[in-house]
Design goal:
Number of strands: 20
Radius of gyration: 47 Å
Strand order of the largest sheet: 2-9-12-11-10-13
Order of helices and strands: HHEEEEEHHEEEEHEEEEEEEEEEEH
Strand content: 35-45%
Largest sheet: 6 strands, antiparallel, barrel
Amino acid sequence: MTTSMIPKRSTLLISAAVIVVLGGAAWSLMHRTDAVAAPNPQASQSPAVSVTTVQVQERDIPLYLSGVGTVTANASVTVKARIDGQLDKVGFIEGQDVKAGQLLAQIDPRALRAQLEQTQAQQAKDQAQLINAKIDLQRYTTLRQQDAATQQQLDTQKALVAQLEAAVKTDEAQISYAKVQLGYTTINAPISGRVGARLVDPGNIVHAADANGLVVINQIDPITVLFTLPEDAVPAINRAQLDNRKSLKVTAFARTNNDDPLATGQLILLNNQIDTTSGTVQLKARFANPRHTLWPGQYVNVNLQMDDHAMALTLPAAAIQRNQNGTYVYIVKADETAAIQPVKVARIQDGIAVIAKGLEQSQRVVLDGQYKLKPGSRIVENKAGAAAPAVKGSAK
């Protein structure tokens, strides 16, 4: 073998090695591309999301408006002294009920009684003088007819009689005034109700100008609730009042419990002006309160029933979601996938959303598990959630 053959063989071996390496790389690249182009079918399908669903139901529910109110006394009176004097005694027990006309307090009457007696004595004196003056007037009249008295004497006597008659009338007015003043020493309850704390103890000097008074009486049976609603509700309330031709029904609930009503009453006031600062209108309802379940100053939730029952599509309020575009729900399509469905909610009451637009009766809607969903997600019914009690939907 010649020396010139050795380099040629080396070149051939190197070329063959390069071809093998390039071929292997190409084969590996082809198989990797195929693997990307044809993924594992099990890896391409995301797992189903476990959710709880409900069906849209048409039910008979009343229309009412909800607000927050404050319980107020049906009538409240601050009992004050109308004259100055020493408070002798009080005739009530703090925190108990009193009847209209019941004795509440007694102010020392001795000074005013003496003033009344003095005025009565002056009246008796003026009446005696008037009687005597009338007798003299009769004499002067007779003497004048006999020309035994002058006309001036007769006129003077007539003037004296008139003067004494005016004095007697003045005495009568003063006696009436003294009796009224004396009557102010006895303070009676102007209304029936519950008295509060005693503000003045016996022995103190009270004045008609005192701001606080002696005691406050609140009438709590019946009792009233003041509440507000948005100004947009005013036309509907007026329309409901005209249609019903009677007072609208109002139900009061505790702030922490909307299941058991505290009392049921009637709307007695729709204020004649909207508060422009808050955009609300004030309303007042009156309730019978024999068991004192409502108390002045208490905050309550209030439902104003607008009309009789009506059929409407409903969902549990928990199914309603919100985004920047408004309210929506996740509906379940025929292929068991979820889709976003915009809806218009007329109102929410008792945990139930009344649907005005966007859904149909018996349509399936996701109630629980929405946070795990996105459009197109496969769903599977959560049997445990489906077996759980449904949200209370009966309207009061």
